């Protein structure tokens, strides 16, 4: 099994912590893994060595405001998804990466798709694991309080969302929809919560609430994301936890509207939102088969 290493690199004025494994030759096929809320690259701890064992270079950064990435206070970072995409782009360029398969999950989806819009030459393939680009993919119950905040912009609606930053809410993202929650390792949500509570440099609860509000701009960009999917020719693997209550199965099914069958693969997992906690081997196998079948790296 390949060894996962940790490193930190400064890009866009941010000290970006990342996990990586596999060969680092310029010709090595490379996969960029982008995590979601409220997690970090830790969510990929089981997937990284499985992909590296298949010969891929695998890189998973912690986004600003998450994990062990540090945003210096003097950086005055603006917590928007445009900013996250800018930082990811700077990270990729600092590492000298030129052609990538990009794994997008949750918050990683709008960050990765914004990157793809800016740098279509960079993205060779997309793997979306409950990474949404369609309005019908938004679970109604989960998103209702955020949509109220988007509509009002009020302090009251912002304050109501602080409950989403607590341990019960973090745990729920892991256990809800999972067929056997007893299988799930509690350190996953415990670490997520500890890092949320600790903040990250100049971030903290206010940064998370800012991102909640800014998520509305991702929904506004869905037509642009969909146009990219239609026109870019990028192959897409949608590997989806069918029991996810945050990004529901309709979001995976919708990719067929914009990605023709010859470059789209949809696979269902018996899992909820954080499918990699129990289905990492299945996901790795699907990714390997997809990247080979689509001849993503030649």
UniProtKB/TrEMBL annotation:
Gene3D superfamilies, alphabetized: alpha/beta hydrolase
Coiled coil start-end: none
Cited InterPro entries: AB_hydrolase_1, AB_hydrolase_fold, Epox_hydrolase-like, Haloalkane_dehalogenase
Keyword terms: Hydrolase
Top-rank taxon: Eukaryota
GO MF annotation, one: epoxide hydrolase activity
Pfam families: Abhydrolase_1 (PF00561)
Signal peptide (UniProt feature, chain positions): none
Domain AB hydrolase-1: 29-279
Protein name: Alpha/beta-hydrolase
Protein source organism: Cryphonectria parasitica (strain ATCC 38755 / EP155)
């Amino acid at each position: 099994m390949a060894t996962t290493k940790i490193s930190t690199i400064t890009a866009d004025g941010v000290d970006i912590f990342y996990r990586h494994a596999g060969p680092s030759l310029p010709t090595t096929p490379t996969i960029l893994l982008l995590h979601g809320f409220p997690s970090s690259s830790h969510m990929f701890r089981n997937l990284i060595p499985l992909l590296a064992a298949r010969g891929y270079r695998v890189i998973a950064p912690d986004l600003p405001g998450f994990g062990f990435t540090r945003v210096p206070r003097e950086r005055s970072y603006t917590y928007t998804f445009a900013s996250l995409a800018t930082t990811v782009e700077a990270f990729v360029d600092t590492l000298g990466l030129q052609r990538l398969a990009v794994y997008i999950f949750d918050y990683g989806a709008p960050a990765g798709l914004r990157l793809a819009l800016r740098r279509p030459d960079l993205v060779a393939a997309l793997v979306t694991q409950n990474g949404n680009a369609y309005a019908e993919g938004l679970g109604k119950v989960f998103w209702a309080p955020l949509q109220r905040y988007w509509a009002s912009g009020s302090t009251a609606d912002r304050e109501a969302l602080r409950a989403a930053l607590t341990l019960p809410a973090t745990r729920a993202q892991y256990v809800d929809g999972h067929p056997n929650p007893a299988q799930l390792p509690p350190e996953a949500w415990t670490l997520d919560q500890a890092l949320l509570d600790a903040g990250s440099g100049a971030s903290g609860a206010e940064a998370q609430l800012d991102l909640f509000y800014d998520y509305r701009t991702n929904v506004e960009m869905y037509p642009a994301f969909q146009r990219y999917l239609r026109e870019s020719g990028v192959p897409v693997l949608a590997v989806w936890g069918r029991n996810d209550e945050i990004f529901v199965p309709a979001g995976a099914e919708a990719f067929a509207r914009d990605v023709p069958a010859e470059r789209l693969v949809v696979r269902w997992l018996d899992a909820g939102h954080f499918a990699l906690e129990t289905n990492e081997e299945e996901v790795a196998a699907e990714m390997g088969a997809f990247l080979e079948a689509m001849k993503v790296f030649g």
